[in-house]
Amino acid sequence: MQMDTTVIALAERQAALCRVVGNTRRLLILWLLSKDELPVNEIASRAGSTLQNVSQHLSLLKKAGIVISRRDGQTIYYQIADHECARSCPALLRAPDTLE
Length: 100
Description:
By secondary structure, the protein is an alpha+beta fold. It has one domain: Arc Repressor Mutant, subunit A (Orthogonal Bundle). It is 55% helix and 14% strand. The chain has helices spanning 5-21, 24-35, 40-47, 51-63, 84-88; strands at 38-39, 67-72, 75-80. A three-stranded antiparallel beta sheet has the order 1-3-2. Helix 2 packs across helix 3. The N and C termini lie far apart (49 Å).
């Protein structure tokens, strides 16, 4: 039996998604954003990371369409996008209760 090209394409998209979210720091960022829209400096502070590091991770998440941003003056806020990940993997984005 040969795989349908649609099934293969879906598997490739899901594998790519797993590569993006399969990083501890990016998962922490997603958990933080699952609770609220946040600016980069607040994400970095709560995640215990540098602005540069968090910005790089947010860039990858944004490129994958998992997060979106909006500018308010000098501040850029990030939130989880209405993405396949949010719809099909809600448990992935459910932060532990102990996360602040």
